[in-house]
Amino acid sequence: MKKVVRQLIEDYSDSYRLERDVLWMVYTIGLQDEIRTAAEETAKSCGFKEIQWIQAQGVITTHGGPAAFGIAGFSSIS
C-alpha cells in the first residue's frame, strides 16, 4: 500500500498539474499510520507546502471500505 500511495500522489499531482499550496488527503478508519506518514513524506517531496487530512464519512466509507485513501487539490489545467 505504501508503494501505491506514493505512486498515486506523484502521478496524480503531475498529471493534473496540481497547485502546490495545499493537498488534501482523505482517509477512512483503518488506514495505518505508516501509510499516512509515507503519504505526507511523498507530498512534501513533491513540493506541497500544506497537507490537510480529512476523515471520510458515511457514503465514501461505505463504498471505499476500511483503510481507503484519496487525494484532492486544485489543478492548474484550464
Brief summary of the model shown:
The chain is of the alpha+beta class and 78 residues long. It has helices spanning 2-15, 33-45, 58-64, and strands spanning 22-27, 50-55, 69-72. The chain has one domain (2-72).
What does this structure look like?
With about 80 residues, this protein is α+β, with helices and mostly antiparallel strands. The protein has one domain. It contains three helices and three strands, in the order H-E-H-E-H-E. The protein has a three-stranded mixed beta sheet with strand order 2-1-3, covered by helices on one side. Helix 1 packs parallel to helix 2. It is globular, with a radius of gyration of 12 Å. The termini are far apart. The model has no long low-confidence stretch (mean pLDDT about 95).
Structural class: alpha+beta
- The average pLDDT score comes to 93
- In DSSP terms (H or I, runs of 4 or more residues), the helix count works out at 3
What is the oligomer described by this structure?
single chain
Q: Any idea what the radius of gyration is?
A: 12 Å
Share of β-strand residues: 15-25%
Shape: globular
What string gives the helices and strands in order? HEHEHE
Number of strands: 3
Distance between the termini: 32 Å
For the sheet with most strands, the description reads:
3 strands, mixed
Provide the helix percentage: 40-55%
Strand order of the largest sheet: 2-1-3
Which spans have pLDDT < 50 for at least 5 consecutive residues? none
Query: How many domain modules?
Result: 1
